[in-house]
C-alpha cells in the first residue's frame, strides 16, 4: 500500500458504532456529557452519519426546547465520527482538531433532533492529503439538524484541521 493511501477496511470507529454496548461504554469513558445527554449514533457509513439528541431532562432549557450545547455536541459528533473513521484507515497517525464552528438556529428544537453530515468524501480527501503531503489540511463540514417532522432546526459548520504525524 502506498504511503498516504486510505484502507477500505472497517476501522475501530466503525466497529464501535456497530455495538450499542461498546458505544455506550466509549461515550461514558471518553464523552461523558454526550452519554448523559443521550446522544445516539443512528447511522454511519463512509459517506455520512446520522447522530441524534433527545429532548429530555438533561438537554432541555427553560424555554421548553433543547439547549444549544447538546445540539452542538450532536452536530460535532456527526462530522467527527467521519474524521475519526478516515484517520483509522491511514497507516500513520493523524491529529485532528476543530479550528472553528458556526451555527444557525432556525427553529425551536422540541423533539429528538437528527444531525446529518454527508461530507465523508471531503473529510477522507483532507486526511489522505495530510498524509500524502505531510502538511496540515483543513476542511469544512456541514451538519444539518432535522426534527421528527422533517423540519430543519439548525445548521452547523465545522472547520476541521488534519496533520499527519509522519516524521
Q: Which descriptors apply to this entry?
A:
alpha+beta, 5 helices, Thiol Ester Dehydrase, Chain A, 167 residues, 6-stranded antiparallel beta sheet
Largest beta sheet: what is the strand line-up?
1-2-4-5-6-3
* Rg computed from alpha carbons, rounded to a whole number of angstroms: 16 Å
Strand content: 25-35%
CATH topology: Thiol Ester Dehydrase, Chain A
Largest sheet: 6 strands, antiparallel
Which second-level CATH architecture applies? Roll
Write down how many β-strands occur, each being a DSSP E stretch of 2 or more residues. 6
The low-pLDDT segments are: 1-5
Overall SS class: alpha+beta
| Whole-number total of structural domains | 1
For this structure, what is the CATH homologous superfamily? Hotdog Thioesterase
- Number of discrete helical segments: 5
> Can you tell me the CATH class?
Alpha Beta
Name the shape in a single word: globular
Q: Which series of helices and strands comes N to C?
A: HHHEEHEEHEE
Helical residue percent band: 25-40%
Short structural summary:
The protein has helices at residues 12-18, 20-30, 32-37, 68-88, 120-133; strands spanning 40-44, 49-53, 94-105, 113-117, 137-146, 152-164. The chain is of the alpha+beta class and 167 residues long.
